[in-house]
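Hi R.,

As promised, here are both runs. First protein below:
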Amino acid sequence: MSGDPQRIAGDNTSPLEGEVAEHSSAGEGYSFHVEQSTPLPDRPPQACDRARDERGAVGERERPGPADKNPSANLAAKKKQKRDVHGWLVLDKPVGMTSTHGVAVIKRLFAAKRAGHAGTLDPLASGSLPIALGEATKTVPFVVDSRKTYVFTIRWGEERDTDDAEGRVAATSECRPDAAAVVAALPRFTGVIEQVPPRFSAVKIEGARAYDLAREGEPVNIAPRTVAVHRLELLEMPDRDHAVLAAECGKGTYVRALARDLGRALGTYGHVSALRRNRVGSFDEGAMISLEQLESLCHRAAAGEGNLADLLLPVETALDDIPALAVSPADAARLQRGQAVLMRGRDAAVVSGLVQVASGGELVAIAEVERGEIVPKRVFNLAGVTGRARRRKV
């Protein structure tokens, strides 16, 4: 679902208190932003803020020194607490929270210098929100371009201006489709199709966001876009007013638009009343972690019963679809300096295209193999806390 994320700064709420951020209907899609480190406001330190060991072990808080009496010194000290943390965490975002606020909470819990997400979820939606920390932000485009799967509920008989339950009713109908009619209509919306994004979406029209124009009452005319719907199936119809469907979509597909267009095709109206994203690329439901679970694990880490690195998936998790190539430490050092290296051995003649390069089991670079040379495109410096969790099977 695509939106224009709002940057969070100066948020003085605790990670779980006030987690429901200001409501927005920015729309669905796959935009990406990286939050740079900002000064932390004065607040009681969280459990994970007490981490001192750069490898993730959590120790006791240091005793206050003379600088604590100086607000400027306190602010500088808090900025120094930011750490190099690298890896992926897949937040099971609750309904009511914005994606940007979810990133801010995770960034604060891990005291991370950099964080960003790989696909906006509207406040109405729940489920998979992959969050990249540190060097993992360099792999975000590979997740953004991947397939996503959703389970969503359509409420028949009402079309709303936002195409979801947050909007105002724009049209109504007494007609209700039966299961057979819904199943018969689904092939029209499967495969490569033309789709008009919702009026309340982050699509730009002559430099302005569509949702800004819609909120101001301006005309919103969005041209159809080509999108891919790989799978669309009816799961159940619990009553005559609702249908529950599953969809697997490519980049840029709006589930809200699917509900709207399906309703019209069935001679009625429809909008999304509930939406859950259960997979983004290689990040499935087994990778998700709730805010409550995360807070509990952070408290355990603070008590010396765990390690923050055990909560994060490795940076290379996002690169599952890219062939892996191993190089020597000497070649790895050259690649990290931005220098190309020659391929050696039997793979030199057969490997080409984009590869992920590792040395000693550690990710070094994303590179392009061109005419027997490995040319680095993105290099990684994984010093600090590095994700090492294993994916749980669903």
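And here is the second one, sequence first, then its structure tokens:
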Amino acid sequence: MRKLDLVHDSAPRRKVTAMGSDHQFVSRRHFLKSAAAGCLALAMTPTLAAEPVRIGFGMSLTGPNAPGGKMFLLGREIWKDEANLKGGLLGRPIQLVYYDDQSNPSLVPGIYSKLIDVDKVDLVMSAYGTNQIAPAMPIVMQKKMVYMGLFGTGVNDEFKYDRYFQILPNGPDGNRSFSLGFFETVLTMRAKPQTVALVGEDTEFGHNILDGARANVASLGLKIVYDRTFPPSTADHAAVVRAVQAVDPDVVFVASYPAGSTGIVRAVREIDYAPRMLGGAMIGLQFTPIKGQLGPLLNGLVINENYVPEPTMKFDGVDAFLAKYQERARGAGVDPIGFWSPFAYAELQVLSQAVSALGEIDQVKIADYLHKTSFKTIIGDVKFGPLGEWEKSRILYVQYQNIQGDDINQFRQPGKAVIMYPREFKSGELIYPYAKARGR
């Protein structure tokens, strides 16, 4: 297990944050120089002398999932800092205790055992992504703690743990809802497509998404002509794309994490492959650094999203949060735009509202309250269903359009990630076929 932050004596320490600052060793000179300013700051900050509320989690801060992990961590830090300025939680200061899982699912169980048994955290949350959420489930269930998940799909379908809740708006049938918008968009094309290729990473995420895609394809009367997975360690995706091209499907649906998503996009352009429609649950393409790297290669892709700056998506507080996130992100080595970061903030809004309403940290009561209550957040109203998923799906499908060059600021504007689905958020029309949409 990799611990975070090396302090003055170079000994590894866990990362603990409270009151908006990190606990660390400081020199006597630095202390004396900061004394006057510190006195003033203390006078202006609420007094929180009680034992802190400790919220623990793993997070992917190195490895291929790090761009997302760092973005989500900043979202949680912003919530923590704001909450502490307002008096904390239950009148106690809030600390975040977290470890780097290195994007490695095998490290996750040990991290959560340590958080619960050694660090004695009061509340636990997940890292981001299905592959990092699922390995902690047996540990959390054994300890009977509420578990707040960040962007998992189908994790609780098998466990059916009544204290699991997750903030990704999958809806009650997460596996199917994650691809439904793609196939509903397929059906808007004139001369209805008939054949589909399904391609996914050989991971829990890939299998969950493809299970749902198969069900959607069957219900919509389409025919699967290719259905295979590839190892997540694949370095050259050209062979994967050529195998799909050989069966000549009308549309191609891909389920992948960042390395696979970027690899598929580059291979498609290298081979000059152009089915009628291409996209899917391609995680990573939503992250600003990857958008900047791929630029116009994104044009025409139809992929899942959760928030984009289209005029149909305006929620109270989200613009103010994003302004704060983007200010803090400057020079911090994190996604500079961070359109998914509001979900990390919102899950803590939900959890803190439950704890505050109850007036205590009781895992049974918190779970019961989370099941029964609708919550106001910066991503809209959140209401959980029986398995801890959103009561109603709100997974977006967008098409990238009119992207020019590699300037990331263009993605701050509407009209670049145009919403195709769901209908109530639709903000433009599909450009098809794929060759036309990408400017071939």
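A quick note on the second one: The CA atoms of residues 154 and 297 lie 30 Å apart. Let me know what you think.

Best,
J.
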